[in-house]
Specification:
Layout lengths: L2 H13 L2 H21 L2 H4 L8 E7 L14 H14 L1 H10 L2 H4 L2 E5 L2 H9 L5 E5 L3 H6 L4 E7 L3 H17 L2 H11 L15 H6 L8 E7 L8 H30 L2 H7 L4 H31 L7 H25 L3 H19 L10 H7 L3 H14 L7 H20 L6
Parallel strand pairs: 1-2, 1-3, 4-5
Antiparallel strand pairs: 3-4
Helix pairs in contact: 1-14, 2-12, 2-14, 12-14, 12-15, 12-16, 12-18, 14-15, 15-18, 15-19, 16-18, 18-19
Length: about 425
């Protein structure tokens, strides 16, 4: 009798257990659907508890003259320049808006050259880059559509809050207010009705109201990365959470066979303890692999979840995650002596690990200390790797996570095998 026989027998027993199938297979699918819909606003709408934002402002290089500029007279060009200088949207945006007392509580900015800003974004030292268009005020005064180009990291909450902040700026560009100021400051000059470019720069800005000028905010992910949807997040979060239950069921099976003296009979039949441990370890791996395969297939076909394009990275993370879970199952079987202990592991320990690892809520919306603790949980590490692959990372980018998971599995298996008992 080989360890493969023990492993396959355990898998068959598990597949006949309706309660186990409900928890291991059905529940992650159901919760992925519910959480993906219910908590979608954390990814696609306003969010609470977002950390302080840090952004870089990059002023774009001078662009070509606006269309039809050369058709204007020198006097008209001068009047437009005076109007744009009087409005100075760039100064309003930086000094009056971003530097306001309210925004300073949640945001700080710095003006940087584009290469430096890109480098800091890649190092996650800033949350986003906002590109200010050249001749911001002039284009606005002339009725052109303005694009505020934003490059963010993939922290969805930070992205959403920044979009809201920028949108509030565009909303404050109230042209009727400008018109009222103009009316108070200056009387209509003689001949204004026949002159499309009045002498008063302030009055000219008031006429923009009739041009329906708008500012468009184009938000994109950091170059080389993709923005993750709620369904993507919770597909990975639920998958890595519920493979922990495979460790619990594996440990429970070991306790049951130990109490029923099945191991004693195997030993009498000539089976070595190492083969029994290997069989139990392999069975837990196969069950966890089945769970992951179901989640990959279901979420991709039903919800269109993109798990990434690096298949080698996806396979490596999955193997290392189920390897770590299988090792955890052997370790739990050595630490726990009764079925009550298994219940505590499944109902308490797994829930705590899931919370810390970000399976219920993204780590970035929880207290900062949870991100530190998440690094020590196997589900947190696996989730981080899956999300990186979804963002566009490759195998080389997640090597550290894979090494951690494999190392955890080896350490757990080694300790568990050393103290594994075949008798009660």
């Amino acid at each position: 009798m080989s360890f493969w026989y023990i492993a396959l027998k355990d898998v068959q027993v598990m597949l006949r257990d309706k309660k186990a199938l409900l928890i291991l297979i059905a529940m992650p699918v159901i919760l992925t659907t519910i959480l993906g819909l219910a908590l979608g606003p954390l990814f696609n709408g306003p969010s609470q508890g977002v950390p302080h934002l840090s952004i870089a402002i990059v002023k774009q290089p001078p662009a070509a003259a606006p269309p039809l500029w050369d058709l204007l007279t020198e006097e008209q060009q001068e009047q437009i320049n005076r109007a744009a200088g009087n409005l100075d949207l760039e100064e309003i945006f930086l000094q009056d808006f971003l530097a306001s007392n309210e925004l300073q509580k949640i945001l700080d900015y710095r003006i940087m050259a584009e290469p430096d800003a890109r480098a800091m974004l890649a190092q996650q030292k800033i949350d986003a880059i906002v590109y200010l268009p050249d001749n911001f005020s002039m284009q606005y005064v002339m009725g052109k559509n303005i694009n505020l180009h934003v490059v963010t990291n993939t922290d969805s909450a930070a992205r959403i809050v920044l979009q809201g902040i920028l949108q509030s700026f565009t909303d404050t560009l109230s042209l009727p207010r400008i018109a009222m100021q103009v009316i108070q400051e200056e009387k209509i000059a003689e001949g204004i009705a026949t002159n499309p470019f009045p002498d008063s720069p302030t009055l000219f800005t008031s006429l923009v109201e009739n041009s329906h000028t708008s500012v468009t905010i184009n938000t994109v992910a950091e170059e080389g990365k993709k923005i993750i949807s709620a369904r993507q997040y919770y597909a990975a979060a639920m998958a890595v959470m519920f493979i922990l239950f495979a460790a619990g069921f594996g440990a429970a099976g070991i306790l049951q066979e130990r109490d029923s003296r099945t191991f004693d009979r195997l030993v009498v039949a000539g089976q070595k303890k190492s083969a029994i441990v290997a069989g139990k370890f392999t069975a837990t791996m196969l069950i966890a692999l089945l769970q992951m395969s179901v989640m990959f297939t279901f979420t991709h076909l039903v919800f269109g979840v993109d798990w990434g394009t690096d298949l080698a990275g996806l396979a490596s993370v999955t193997f290392s995650a189920v390897f770590a879970v299988a090792g955890l199952g052997i370790l739990i079987a050595c630490l726990v002596k009764t079925e009550r202990g298994i219940i505590v592991f499944q109902s308490v320990v797994i829930q705590v690990m899931a919370f810390l690892g970000g399976s219920f809520l993204p780590v970035y919306v929880m207290p900062e200390f949870t991100s530190t603790l998440a690094a020590f949980t196997i589900n947190g590490q696996a989730l981080k790797a899956y999300l990186s692959l979804m963002e566009g990372a490759t195998l080389g980018d997640i090597t550290a996570t894979i090494v951690y998971l494999i190392g955890f599995g080896i350490a757990s298996l080694g300790i568990g095998a050393k103290f594994f008992r075949v008798t009660s």
